[in-house]
Amino acid sequence: MDLSAFLTGQVMGVALVFARIGGVVMYMPALGEAFVPVRHRIAFALLLSLALYPALPVGPQSLDAPGLLLAALGIELTLGLWIGMTARILLTGLQFAGAQIGMIVGLSNAFAPEIGSFQGSTLISTGLMLGAVALIFAMDLHHLILGAMVMSYEVFPPGALLTGDLAQQIVRAVAQSFYIGLSVAAPFFVMGLLINLGMGLAARMMPTLPVFFVAAPLLIAAGLLVLGVAAPLMLREFAERFAAWLGLLMF
């Protein structure tokens, strides 16, 4: 046996695993957060690829057909990025909810939403997203993430790319994220409506009342009170939806 060819085949096999696992780690919630340095994410993905390689249906790869190998690497990278970004889309439901809550209670700037960032631009959305990350580790959902990485090779065999199904699942993830954001922010919509309606009636009854000066601290206090009561349920809703999505990759 040619040792050089054997080692090369093993290295290319690990590289094929790293293409998918690295794509997942770069965007997966709790693993691919922006405050984790990129080099640390890459190092973790490399170690994870080395550890999972023996358990995955990916054998040694030959360099005799470099075009086919590059195509396989591109497909695996696409699948990894798809898995990580779909999970990230689900997490942005909390960012959307936090932005809505911040605007309702007056703790955000409507002219600087920063929707494209991993963390929210408001304190509330940032707090919700950090709480979701902490909940993922507290509930051992990171073990489910690792299991989903392994089982993804059963759902998407190496070299297979179904673009239609991937696009359809992305659309479903966006709809699910929007639903999560609206459902967890619904109590604040009701609270804001009731308080503003009450302030409007008070302004009608007492025209000299400085409504804006009275309503602002009242909205903030009521919003923080409702947030303190509803935050555990909001995070649990996300955790259940996220775990259910990971379960689709495992079963």
From TrEMBL:
Tree of life domain: Bacteria
Keywords attached to this entry: Cell membrane, Cell projection, Cilium, Flagellum, Membrane, Transmembrane, Transmembrane helix
Pfam families referenced in this protein's UniProt entry, alphabetically: Bac_export_1 (PF01311)
GO biological process, one term: protein targeting
Location of this chain's protein in the cell: Cell membrane
Transmembrane segments: 6-30, 42-59, 65-83, 90-112, 118-139, 178-199, 211-235
Protein topology in the membrane: Multi-pass membrane protein
Keyword Ribonucleoprotein: no
GO CC annotation: plasma membrane
Similarity field: Belongs to the FliR/MopE/SpaR family.
PANTHER family xref list: FLAGELLAR BIOSYNTHETIC PROTEIN FLIR
The protein's name in its UniProt record: Flagellar biosynthetic protein FliR
Biological source species: Marinovum algicola
